[in-house]
Amino acid sequence: MYLSKIASYLDADLFGADLEIVSMNELSLACATQLTFAVHKKYSKELSSSRAKAFLITQDLVEFLPLDASYIICSDVSISMAKATKLFAPKLIDFELPHAKIGDGSYIDAMARVENGAIIGSGVTVMAGAYIGSCSVVGDNTIIYPNVTLYRDCVVGSDCIIHSGTVIGADGFGFSHTKTGEHIKIYQNGNVIIEDDVEIGANCAIDRAVFNSTRIKKGTKLDNFIHIAHNCEIGEYCIFVAQTGVGGSTKLGRNCVVSGQSAFSDHLEIAPFSTFTARSGVTKSIKQSGGIYSGFPLMDHKEWRRLQGKIAKLNS
Amino acid sequence: MYLSKIASYLDADLFGADLEIVSMNELSLACATQLTFAVHKKYSKELSSSRAKAFLITQDLVEFLPLDASYIICSDVSISMAKATKLFAPKLIDFELPHAKIGDGSYIDAMARVENGAIIGSGVTVMAGAYIGSCSVVGDNTIIYPNVTLYRDCVVGSDCIIHSGTVIGADGFGFSHTKTGEHIKIYQNGNVIIEDDVEIGANCAIDRAVFNSTRIKKGTKLDNFIHIAHNCEIGEYCIFVAQTGVGGSTKLGRNCVVSGQSAFSDHLEIAPFSTFTARSGVTKSIKQSGGIYSGFPLMDHKEWRRLQGKIAKLNS
Amino acid sequence: MYLSKIASYLDADLFGADLEIVSMNELSLACATQLTFAVHKKYSKELSSSRAKAFLITQDLVEFLPLDASYIICSDVSISMAKATKLFAPKLIDFELPHAKIGDGSYIDAMARVENGAIIGSGVTVMAGAYIGSCSVVGDNTIIYPNVTLYRDCVVGSDCIIHSGTVIGADGFGFSHTKTGEHIKIYQNGNVIIEDDVEIGANCAIDRAVFNSTRIKKGTKLDNFIHIAHNCEIGEYCIFVAQTGVGGSTKLGRNCVVSGQSAFSDHLEIAPFSTFTARSGVTKSIKQSGGIYSGFPLMDHKEWRRLQGKIAKLNS
Known about the structure:
Udp-n-acetylmuramoylalanyl-d-glutamate--2,6- Diaminopimelate Ligase, Chain: A, domain 1; UDP N-Acetylglucosamine Acyltransferase, domain 1; 9-stranded parallel sheet
């Protein structure tokens, strides 16, 4: 899509060359064929060193752009960015794609839907009521239980087990907010990648990324009702007990253990081999690996136990 | 249905005219063709001023009834009310209704079920595995993702997005309890109304009202795993982050922001523009708009932060 | 399956007679045709009195076995047990079974899947998108709403109502852990039994037992988003409000009331008629019936209320 069309859609002016744009991405990751954006002066350094050539930007940030940049001047970059994502949203279902490819020895129930463009490995089981979206990929020997939904463009590795009711690739929860309190959808044009040997329990929800991928790495096991927000990265061999949630863009290292009803804020980085006892509420990144944590606000598990004793004494 | 039939079903005596009854409703809302009920003397004033003409009632409350009232004397009104709701429960699926009406340019997947009597607007997408119940309505341009369930008689507005696994219109959680500890189902004969431009994430559950409607107003956005109980009213442009729950009949004003894992008790009224940080537990109504709250028990956010500091010091 | 085959699969040595084994079970429950296991010396007494004849065991526990026992020596019993469970996992779908039996007056939607070997009572409604697994049983007059999933070998009683999105019989969350941090699946070869007159709300998950049964007893009512882990036993006439979870093998007595967002650790025993207010976190068994509890850590409800007052005063 040409920048001129995007500018026209946003009812805004384009400056510089009318480049062809393939997709959108955040500033730190955008490449030369992607449209990016900056919403605040704090990104001025990132702007000048960006590999991107096309920007949504406010007038006051133009001076920080690379010399050869094309840019669309927006009065509210956040809103314009949200509106622009709609232009890059793929079709819900793409009937023009070739029929799905199904590997040897796979069983696709007649009551399952596998959309065009999907690729199913060998030895896969897709049970009744399951949905595999356009261009999604399911690796060898994976089991997709009844009534699982895999949105388009998502990837599930080999030897995975996805239990019923689980939804992989629904839109991340992203909106820009107008001054009058309305919420403008940021289309979530990324995907979800589930690596090999992952088991996901019943009625989980793993949201697709706004750009790029939400990723669950090899060997991780999720219990029921796990919420993984957009752009998270869950390391290898993690364990998530039921009813836990992870906020957007948070990254956990390998072999973390997260007990029931715990939750993580967005944009955190959690060191590998961290353990969280039940109902931990994690709001800050953790740099040192191997710790055991509890409580909300979060603290060292031993400290939390000691504190509970102190609190109980208030009643005596 | 005639009162005499209801009395007979309840094995109770009817006094007054044998009126034809269309439905049931709570005392404050019931009109002349609805059966209502009073379970306690505290409703004596409401009884005498009620527009209703038909009552389930205990002997001791008869004196407060309007003069022309018809009434059925019950030894346990709560139990009789529950039993009576069963008589008004519509069929699960109504095959005798005319075929669903589908608007221009709508796509209904061959693996979706749209029951008779449903009305689908134009430009709607109903994907595989989705279920649209009898007499339900879906507005223009709305997207119903795979494996969504919309129970009968419910309404989804225009330009809505309903993500996979979400259930709209399942029965509210309502029972009357016998003295020996059994639970008698109160049939939930109301519905759900989702207004325009609402987005609902994956695996949410919005329960139908016992009488009347559960309502989610225009422009509100729900993340994944949101529980909205029967008879709630969620105002315009609210934001609900994942894994939050709202108890029955609670009403939130417009532009409330509810962070992850928060919850509200039933029968609350929450002022508009209220913000609740993660894991807020709201058990009292909030009258002043624009506040920021935290904790369980709930308090002002700044107070909560200060309190956490004080609590942490107990350990030193 | 013969022990020799199991030993070979585990690449381990068999001692004693090559018995034919029907299934696996835990030490305290295993009978003569079941393979069992002991992972620790603390089970030495149970070992010597076990009715089982076939064991996975470490060398140092051999001395405690019954004299006529057959046993397979494992270096890591926990891992070998997990691997062995795979040998006993039934087929996901068993096409060789006879067609499902459907009772008189039952309605099975053409878009529902009822696998071979299932038995559906009379007057049952199975709506579009519902899935009834191989050999599962659904009792008379039960309603299975759209997009419910009932895994194979599970039982739902008579007069039950199962709301949309609920998953009954997905695998319990059980793994053995290698020294290098991988998780080896313990196949969950048990089932779920839902007794009569149970109502289960939308998007619940009741996991199948690892061995034997997860059980929900007569007349219990679950709201939405209830997580019941493997091998739980929920007593008669319990009430679970939304977003609560129960850890593995925990047993609740009859008429317990569990308010929203509460949770129970695994392996607890909870006395009948216990009440838990919202967000209770239960980590210890409760022996005395009729108590009311709150908080996490859990305490008597009145004590908790008093404590909240004391905590609030810290800020003054």
